[in-house]
Amino acid sequence: MRKARIIGMVTLMSTTLAAANTVAVTEFLNNAEGDDTGREFVELYNYGGSDVDLTGWMLNDEDSDSYTLDATIDAGDFLILVGGDNSITGAAKKALFETEWLSGVPDARVIGMDQSWAFGNSSDEIVLSDADSAVVWNLAYDNDETTGRATFLTVDDYAVTDFGTKAAPGIVREGFDNGSLDFLGYESNDSALAEDPNAYESTELNWGSPFFIVDDTPPADLTLAITGSCPGAMTVDVTNATPNSTIAVIYALSTGSLLVPAGNPCVGTELGLNNTAQLYSTETTDGDGAFSIEVTIPGPGCGLYVQILDLASCDTSNVEQL
């Protein structure tokens, strides 16, 4: 009985510890267009499945900047910390950010730091520590920023949490971070090496993607599934197509590698069918990129090969035989 209780306590402690280490620095703007105060920001993202209490957590650099947090970050959600000098209040910094990025709509996830927290334009550090002073995430950048371009985290596995020090900055915003030729961690929004698909221009001509992260999970494959008995009633299901778009249902006598000929959508796309391929129908997917239909297949249709072509993306599905 005592052993079971000990195991339970260890499990609980492990779960709590894991939850406390699911906060990442996913974006920051350290050199804004115009006045930096109220326009510089750092974005925190909780990539875990549990809310994290940030009470007593600290945001520091390696010099004198320091800010104590008093907030909770929900699972899968963000906090934006807005910086600048003491020329305006934290509430005014918050309002400036919301005006610039959120059309003036107040958002409780935006926190104006009510003390001086100025991001260095040429170089600085962002160190996030928990209430026990354990470093959860840290980064250091050098003098390679582009004015008005936020720096964002390009990978979403959160396996690397240490990006250098003041003496040896780990972030190279137009190259590989942490001195590794096979690791790309942070990039600028004007980088040729990485692209933030969520980035947009603010009213003050800054580029960033607050409240968004880059998802580098490969998109799910366009999938065709056919069930039922041939001849007879069969169900055709399509998933992972472009939402609210047109798909082509194509059939052929055999498999092959036919290229879609000129005069058709997606010309040059390779199908998994041979040159007997014919268009059966075009259909429209729903908002989830799915389509389903029940059809009755006569005897002569049995044995035919079917494939889906997404006319919006030109992706092709697997080939199924009736």
Notes on the protein architecture:
This protein has 322 residues and is mainly beta. The protein folds into 2 domains: 2-208, Immunoglobulin-like; 223-321, Immunoglobulin-like. It has 2 helices and 22 strands. It has helices at 2-20, 90-101, and strands at 23-29, 41-46, 52-53, 58-60, 66-68, 72-73, 78-82, 110-112, 124-129, 135-141, 151-153, 162-163, 186-188, 200-201, 207-208, 223-228, 232-239, 246-252, 278-284, 291-297, 305-310, 320-321. It has a 6-stranded mixed sheet with strand order 8-7-2-1-11-13. The longest helix has 19 residues, at 2-20. The chain starts with a helix and ends with a strand. The relative contact order is 0.11. The model is unreliable at 1-20 (pLDDT under 50).
